[in-house]
Every structure is written in structure tokens, then in C-alpha cells.
Design brief:
The radius of gyration is 21 Å and the shape is elongated. Strand 4 and strand 5 form a beta hairpin. The N and C termini lie far apart (about 50 Å). The chain is α+β, with helices and mostly antiparallel strands and about 280 residues long. It contains 14 helices and 5 strands. Helices cover about 45% and strands about 10% of the residues. Helix 3 packs across helix 5. It has 2 domains: about 90 residues, lambda repressor-like DNA-binding domains (434 Repressor (Amino-terminal Domain)), CATH 1.10.260; about 160 residues, 2-Layer Sandwich (Beta-Lactamase). A 5-stranded antiparallel sheet has the order 2-1-5-4-3. This is Helix-turn-helix domain-containing protein. It comes from Streptomyces sp. R08. GO terms for molecular function: DNA binding. InterPro entries: Cro/C1-type_HTH, Lambda_DNA-bd_dom_sf, MLTR_LBD.
Length: about 280
């Protein structure tokens, strides 16, 4: 386990500070800089806090700054909405999960609601599936696993991406997919504090690439997007997707993929659904 895991707030601020362009932030320098990004004292000055206080934040000696201070720092670092939400969650972590009678955290229910299962059965012409917060595939439409073996019930999207050799064949843009997968998981882990610790530790031990991406502290909001799939017997498909957080404490998310209106990809999806 990386030492960064003991101080997520400080590590996140440091990583973002190192990726911030000093010139964009308004810092004028006339000598060659020996470190990437902003220096601590530069960020502190731009955010209107003392350098000693900001240093305490990065070192983990103050883990609960005010929202006003965080807003000022976020503005300097030019954080997007997903990164800001992640920053708030680190400074005001969610309550620890309830413990069961054995003293272990309660497990997230894997049962998908009957109404959602009914919808999946009706959506015969769409690749769609439901995942848990740790990205276990809990239920799918019939079409989903025909397009991507990662979308088979019982698979885990993270494990497939990093541990299954088929992933690099299925995802032509594997590099981007892997980065987004880890960045999205980090955002989820902050919101469901403690529940994903064992899974993340296992993935870090199983994949050096996962571990390196996890330590980068990137955060990604997986609301919608596009993805390319290499489907055997079909070829390359370019699909868009939308995600829907299902109400309830389970943390389930519904993914729905589709081809752009009038595109060859949409026609291919329809043909596969009818076949």
C-alpha cells in the first residue's frame, strides 16, 4: 500500500499542484523551474492562505479545512466539477460503514430491484447493465455480453480491464479506458468510504499499472461518454453511453450504450438484437 493512502487529501492536492501550469495560474518566473507545477508557497499565496497552513494540509497535519479555503485552492488548481466534489468528500468524509455482528463492514447488497430487472429484459435492442460500486456486473440485457465479455453478469469491469488479456483487444483505446476506470473508482471510493478498501488493495497487488494510476489521484465523473469496442465477427463499434445512479443505499449504477442516431453503429446494434 502506498503511503499516499494514509493522506488522500494531501496527496490529491500535491498531485494537482504538480500538474498546474504556473503561467496559467499567473505566476511569472524568469529562471528555469526545477520542480513541475506550482510550488507550495505559490499556491498558498494565490489561494490567500499562509504557506505554513497549506503545508500542513499537504502533510496531513490538518485534514479538515474550511469550505472557503478549499474553494480558493480549487479555483487556483482549476479543478473541474468531479475533482471539486472529490475534494469536498476528502475534507468531510462520509461516515464509516456500519459493522455487522462479526465486526466487519456490512456488504453491499447485490440484489438488483425487480423493476430494474424487468426493464433490462424489455430492452432487447440495447446493451445495458447494472454494476455495484466496486464495478461488479450484477445484471445485463441479453445484448450486452454479446458486444463485450466484460459486460457479462458476474464480471468485474476493473478486473477485466487490468487482469484479463482480452481487454486490450476489446478496447482499442485501452490506455484511456484504464485511466478513466481508475479515476472513476477513486471518486466512488471517496463517496463510499471504507467499503472498497479491500478491493482496491487487492487490485494494487494484482496490477502494477492499476497501482500507478491509483497513485496519480486522478478523478473522473462517469456520467456519460463514448467508447470504442472491437467486437469479434462485427468489427469496430463506436458507442455512446449514459449512466444512471439508481436511488437507494446499494450504490448501483445503470449503464446504457447506444449508437448515434442514423449511424452504422446504430444499424449494427439493431441487426445484432434481431439476430
Amino acid at each position: 500500500m502506498s503511503h499516499d493512502d494514509d493522506n488522500d487529501l494531501g496527496s490529491f492536492l500535491r498531485r494537482r499542484r504538480e500538474k498546474t501550469d504556473p503561467a496559467r495560474a499567473g505566476v511569472v518566473t524568469h529562471t528555469r523551474r526545477r520542480v513541475p507545477g506550482l510550488r507550495r508557497e505559490e499556491l498558498a499565496l494565490l489561494a490567500g492562505v499562509s504557506p505554513s497552513y497549506y503545508t500542513r494540509l499537504e502533510q496531513g497535519r490538518d485534514r479538515h479545512p474550511s469550505r472557503e479555503i478549499l474553494q480558493a485552492i480549487a479555483a487556483v488548481l482549476e479543478l473541474d466539477d468531479a475533482e471539486r466534489s472529490y475534494l469536498w468528500s476528502l475534507a468531510a468524509p462520509a461516515p464509516a460503514p456500519a459493522l455487522d455482528t462479526d465486526g466487519a463492514p456490512d456488504r453491499e447488497p447485490d440484489a438488483v430491484r425487480p423493476g430494474v430487472l424487468h426493464l433490462l429484459r424489455r430492452w432487447s435492442d440495447l446493451p445495458a447493465f447494472v454494476t455495484s460500486s466496486r464495478r461488479d456486473v450484477l445484471a445485463t440485457t441479453a445484448l450486452a455480453p454479446r458486444l463485450n465479455p466484460a459486460w457479462e453478469k458476474g464480471q468485474n469491469l476493473i478486473e477485466f480491464t487490468f487482469l484479463d488479456p482480452r481487454a486490450r483487444q476489446v478496447y482499442p483505446q485501452w490506455q484511456d479506458i484504464s485511466l478513466q476506470a481508475v479515476a472513476g473508482l477513486r471518486a466512488t471510493a471517496a463517496a463510499s468510504r471504507g467499503r472498497l478498501d479491500d478491493f482496491i488493495a487487492t487490485m494494487r497487488e494484482s496490477s502494477d499499472t492499476f497501482g500507478a494510476l491509483w497513485d496519480s489521484h486522478d478523478v473522473y465523473d462517469r456520467i456519460h461518454g463514448a467508447k470504442q469496442l472491437q467486437v469479434p465477427g462485427v468489427g469496430l463499434l463506436s458507442l455512446e453511453y449514459e449512466t444512471f445512479a439508481l436511488a437507494g443505499h446499494e450504490g448501483h449504477v445503470l449503464y446504457v450504450y447506444f449508437g448515434r442516431d442514423g449511424s452504422d453503429d446504430e444499424a449494427t446494434i439493431r441487426r445484432l438484437a434481431a439476430g
